[in-house]
Every structure is written in C-alpha cells, then in structure tokens.
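Treating backbone geometry as a discrete language has practical consequences that deserve illustration. In the encoding step, the backbone of a single protein was reduced to a row of integers, each denoting a local shape. The amino acid sequence and the backbone structure tokens for this protein are reproduced below.
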Amino acid sequence: MTNDSVDLMEKLPVVRELNRRRLLTWGAAGGLSLGGLWQAQLQADQQAMRPRRAIRSCIFVFFYGGPSHLDTYDLKPEAPSTVRGEFQSIATSVPGLRIGEHLPRMSQVMHHCALIRSMHHSNRLHDSASIETHTGRQAAQGDREEFAPIEQFFPCHGATVSHLQRERNLVVPHAALPFVFHNVVDTPCQGGGFLGSAFDPFRITVNPDKQSYAVQELMLRDDLPATRIQGRSEFLDRLQAVSAANPSSKANLTQYYDKALRLLNSEEIRRALDLSQEPAEVRERYGVYGVEPATGAGGAEGGYARQMRGQNLLIARRLVEIGVPFVNVYDFRQQGQNWDSHANNFAQHKQFLLPPADRALAALIQDLHERGLLDSTLVVATGEFGRTPKINPNAGRDHWPDCYTVLLAGGGVQGGAIYGASDAIGAYPAQDPATPADLAATIYWRFGFDPATHIHDRTDRPWRIANGEPIRQLFAAQG
C-alpha cells in the first residue's frame, strides 16, 4: 500500500473502523490499487447509508437533571483522580466496550445498544437544555430557566411524528408518562407547539398509593355507563346533521368528539395501563420498589419516584406493543432528588440513581428483544446534558452540555457501535461532534421521514422537521 493510498484513505469518511481495517488488510496484500481503495470505500459508505426498514415506535427515556457521562458510559480511567472519580469500569457483552461498574445489567445488553459519545449543545440550564433535547431546537428565549408559563413554539419529537402520521388516525399516536417533568411550570417542550394542542401527548399519570396508571379522560363516572355515552353520541350526530352553521368549525369539533369517544371506548388502552395483567416476575424484572419508604429529598415524591421508575418503562413497552408510535418516559421531574448531582455525585449515583435505572432500561431492551419488538422500536436514553469533568468541593459534578453521551438501543442500531469520542477528560468532543438536532434527524429518519421535510407554523411559515443530519453510521444497512 502506498503512502498516497494511506493519506487518501485517512481523508475519506470512514463509516466504521472495521472498514478501515479491511482496507488496510487488502492494501497490504496488494489486492487493491488506489482506485480500488476509493471504490471499496464508496461501496462501504453506500452500504452504510442505505435506509433500513422504517421503525414502528420510539421510546424516549429522559433522565431529568443530567446523568454523569463520566460515571456511566464514558469513563476516563487514565484521567487524574479529580476527573475520573470513584467508579471503575466493567466489561460488557461487546468485546472491548467497557461501561461503569454500577450498570451491571446494562453491561449484558450492550450488544443491542449504540453510544453517541460526542453529544453537545450550548445550554447550561435545565429548561433551555430540556427544550433543545426534546425539540432539537435552541429555545427562543435563550439559555434561561422558566418560572412563569411561556408558550411552546417548536413541537417535540412525538408531536412531529404524530403530525407526519396524522393520516393513520390512531387513537393514541403519542403518549407521555408519568408526569409533566417540571412541576413549577410546564417546560415548553413536551407538547405540540405550533402544530397545535391536537398533537399534545396522551398524558398518563400514576396513583402513587395504588401504584397504578390512569388517564383522567378515560375514567367514566359511575352514573355514566357506556350505553349512555353511546346515546349521547347518537344524539350529537342528529344535532349536527340538522346544523348548517359554520361547516369547517363543525368538522373540527366532530374530529375532537370522535377521538374522545374512541378513547373512552378503547379497552385496549385500558388494558395496556393495567399492570395487573403482567406476571409478577415481569414486574419484578423491571423493578418494584413499593416497599421503600417515601423519605429523603422530595418527600413523598422521592419515594414515589423510587417505587415507579421501573414500572414506567414497563408501561412504555405495553403501549408500544399495542401500536403506540411514540412514548416519552420522564424518569424524574424538577424538585426533589433527581440526576442533578451537584453534591455527593458518587453516593447518589451508586445508591439511588443508577441501580433502578440500570435494572429498568436493561429489562426494557431485553423484553423488547424477546417479544420481537426491538428491531422495530428505537429506544433513546438521555439527559439534557452531562456533568463537569472536574469534581467540585462538594464531591459533586455540575452542569456540562459541552460533551455527554446518549444511548440508543434497537431500531436497527449496530450493536456495540460508538459514534464520536470525547477528549481525554470527557470535556469536549474530540471526534464527530453531534447535536440534539442530529438526534432529532436520526429519530425522524428511522421513522422513514426526510429531515428536510417541512411543517408549517400558525403563520404558514415552513420549518424543516430537523436542522441536523441523521447519524446513519450507527445503523446496520438493510439486508
């Protein structure tokens, strides 16, 4: 292999290190000329860029507060002790890939996962970072926290997918549970934005005492049985038939009435939210923490979060199983304990944050695989940012959006693949930087939508659904 060949190959976009090793081997054996190397690399690129079969669903798991990438999926064992911290790395089901020691269950399913180790943006506060995470767009108000309600502008991922699939007329195209993740004001990134409230998610709440899930709109009063609901529907049809006023408004109202009735009559949705339908061993696999007292920061909410974190992901699996395309799961909410570990980072991650998250996420991935749903379901697991490389005087790590890790599972990912890399202390991308806009583009692309597709706001101004580019390199080509 000539020096010119090596130089040229270094300049080509290498999709996977495997391709590079193959080219080096072939070149050393004298099997390829410079032109042959070029053609081989182009073929490898084209193979990797071929679109796979579109996914049916996405489960977006949001670890509110910002997990530490340096203590989970991007450890730096060679860094100074003020950076590397207390945790060791462990081997995984992917040879050569090591992750944090407090993720033992995830270590066994990494052959179903891929990592983006170069995610970054410029928002250093929770609200603005959350907005960019869930919409792929910088917040219009800039990098600041919101303590008074403001209107959401850009739609979240699930709302955009719902809009693009609106012709399917699904009963539940987009669900979110188990709460609005900011309980001071509704952080403006969880709904339909300029697409309108029709594309807001189907909000599922939890009863912390009964450890059960419900949707208020689906709870019929005792004095309003299904027969009375049907009678009211028929009466409404007769009224509308004789009404000639404002046909367009009438059509819109009819659409909302029809959807409401379909929800009220949906036994499938009710069954999906009924965890008593699941065997006890399955619920335990995801993690049941009902015996843990509601103590610690956040009071009852802290206890509730511990009890139900695993069950939230089980509900997500049950929703995907009945055909819901997009499910948001909020692992924590503002106030109380969450992933915002400014103090006692290592104790919090070891004792409180990681064990339930490790158990539940691994159970979800394995469960989807065993049920034949993993290839058609993309799982995204991320916080709004990572944590500072340097440990602060309170043994904590502070907000760090300059580089962090996002985990993808299923949906056609190349098991064990890694996109991008952070520098020696996990501070900044050292290779292939990625943004939330690229993550949004990847999600839409996997659903079969071109990120350059336009949607329109209320003034009919067109917007691309994503400003980034899909990270195609993480996905296996369609066979």
Notes: The chain has three domains: 3-49, 57-215+273-474, 216-271. Residues 216-271 form one domain. The chain has 14 helices and 18 strands.
